[in-house]
Recover the amino acids of this structure.
């Protein structure tokens, strides 16, 4: 099926109207264009209008770019929009965890997981975040060449293993890390390729690789869970809190549910933060003015000491660096929902079964909401003199009832790591443009090599 170009297809309401997207192919719709470069395709759709019809295979889709509509989608999820069915690769890794679960099952799991990542708990993990970053800083030396992707991945893996699992065994981190690398790659390939349209029972080499990676993840998580069950009853890590959490009926999470939520937390605490830090170093290296402003704040707030949780609120420019990085290179680069009966957006009815899409990448780079959108300007986020930013024009962690529970964890972790390392060093990234690759998260298209310079 293909769409027709032309004037608006529905009566405008509140200034909104559906418009037609680019013409698609029979059976495939716009999948080839989307699969070739999802980020460029989303920008193309944004250029057509705020509510654009297109097709993902035979699936009816609408792409939205207006923050008001994005807010409606996010806040109405669970009521008039449902979570879409995700591919084999995604389900093999995340199971039926909080990101995937729906309805009553989602509400139950959220109530059990949320206490583990409340601000009080994040505060207790901050010391581990900072001390782990200090260990890395102590290992760096002036003039050393490093692969930032590898360095940040190893660091955030260490923090994830320590805060989530409460262990410090390299084998746990390395095995999980290798499996997650495979998972990210295969999820991205399946989502943007023909695999997204294949029935679950169709075997492919990619699905074989993802199942092998998922088996490694299951094994590693199972080993750590067993260790916790046989060990102390009172431990400060996230996994221990999950093991002892009970719902309203007094029931605990099953072993399978523990596995799914642990992997979800691991991805949120490791993959997303690692990617954000890589892009932050890349942007800082390309913007000496911003790097100097960050150094000034770190010297003023910290002096010659390492940061702690109590410094987070004072490091407003560092927070701005992280937020601006997440604007330009959002780790999670799209959200989707499936319209239920009676769904509406922008005052217009959305036919039941229509898949609604929006992209952080596209909206965050819209000049209507962010003047000079390609510029790296952390000052946008200054709590006193920053820009007025429309609600839901920036949504790297989603929003509404399904907002990422790890938002506070990720922000504190990113700022503290940046503060520890940037207080001592500058990283000069090698010349050349690095392109983003959309997989499970938004990743650089190559190794990010840099020279460490002592400040």
């Amino acid at each position: 099926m293909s769409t027709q170009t032309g004037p608006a297809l529905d009566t405008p309401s509140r200034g909104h109207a559906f418009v037609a997207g680019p013409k698609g192919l029979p059976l495939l719709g716009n999948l080839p264009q989307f699969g070739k470069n999802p980020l460029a395709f989303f920008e193309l759709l944004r250029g057509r209008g705020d509510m654009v019809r297109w097709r993902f295979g035979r699936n009816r889709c609408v792409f939205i770019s207006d923050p008001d509509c994005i807010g409606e989608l996010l806040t109405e999820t669970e009521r008039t929009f449902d979570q879409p069915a995700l591919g084999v690769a995604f389900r093999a890794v995340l199971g039926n965890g909080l990101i995937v679960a729906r309805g009553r099952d989602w509400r139950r799991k959220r109530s059990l997981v949320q206490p583990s990542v409340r601000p009080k708990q994040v505060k207790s993990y901050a010391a581990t975040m900072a001390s782990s970053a200090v260990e890395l800083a102590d290992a760096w030396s002036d003039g050393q060449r490093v692969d930032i992707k590898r360095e940040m991945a190893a660091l955030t893996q260490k923090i994830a293993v320590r805060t989530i699992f409460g262990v410090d065994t390299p084998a746990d981190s390395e095995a999980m890390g290798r499996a997650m690398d495979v998972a990210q790659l295969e999820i991205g390939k399946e989502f943007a390729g023909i695999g997204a349209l294949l029935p679950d029972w169709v075997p492919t080499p990619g699905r074989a690789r993802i199942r092998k990676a998922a088996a490694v993840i299951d094994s590693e998580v199972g080993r750590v869970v067993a260790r916790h069950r046989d060990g102390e009853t009172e431990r400060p890590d996230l996994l221990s809190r999950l093991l002892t959490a009970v719902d309203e009926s007094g029931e605990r999470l099953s072993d399978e549910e523990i596995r799914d939520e642990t992997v979800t937390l691991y991805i949120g605490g490791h993959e997303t933060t690692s990617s954000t830090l890589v892009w932050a170093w890349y942007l800082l290296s390309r913007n000496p003015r911003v790097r100097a402003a960050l150094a000034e704040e770190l010297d003023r707030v910290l002096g010659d000491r390492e940061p702690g949780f109590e410094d987070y609120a004072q490091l407003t420019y560092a927070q701005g660096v992280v937020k601006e990085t997440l604007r330009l290179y959002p780790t999670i680069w799209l959200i989707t929902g499936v319209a239920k009966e009676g769904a509406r957006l922008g005052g217009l009815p959305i036919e039941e079964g229509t898949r609604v899409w929006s992209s952080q990448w596209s909206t965050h780079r819209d000049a209507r909401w962010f003047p000079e959108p390609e510029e790296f300007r952390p000052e946008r986020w200054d709590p006193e003199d920053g820009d007025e930013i429309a609600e839901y024009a920036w949504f790297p962690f989603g929003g509404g009832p399904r907002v990422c529970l790890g938002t506070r964890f990720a922000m504190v972790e990113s700022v503290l790591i940046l503060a520890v390392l940037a207080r001592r060093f500058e990283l000069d990234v090698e010349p050349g443009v690095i392109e983003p690759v959309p997989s499970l998260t938004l990743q650089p298209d190559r190794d990010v090599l840099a020279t460490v310079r002592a400040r």
User: Anything to note?
Assistant: Residues 1-13 have pLDDT under 50 and may be disordered. The chain has 15 helices and 13 strands.
